[in-house]
Design goal:
Blueprint (H helix, E strand, L loop, with lengths): L2 H14 L3 E2 L2 E2 L2 H62 L11 H12 L13
Keywords: Coiled coil
Amino acid sequence: MNVDQAAINMSNVLQDSRIETPKGPLTSREHQQLAADLHLLISRAKEVDEATEEAKRLVIKVANLEGELIALREDLKQARIKVHEVIKNAGAEVPGEFLSEEEEKELLKEIKGAPDPGPIEAPKE
């Protein structure tokens, strides 16, 4: 049952019945206070319900962003491998499995005799 349906059910109960307590029936003022408290409770429940839905949307958004980040990291890794291969194929001696970005730039400058190529971007597929 959702919050709106619960609110309707509780309002109907309050309107249609006399509420008995161990001390006797509720006075008109107590009945009004109970109705006001119920209204406040329903409002808060709706706020919680809306916040829960927003939290669900945000969790999905974060999961999607994490997936994109993983894909971008893989693209970057593949781009670095290609740069490493290009440098190696150009006849330069490449230390280690991967070079730092600075080392890649320096070797490219030496090999090509060209100015700094700028940031290395992953290829678009």
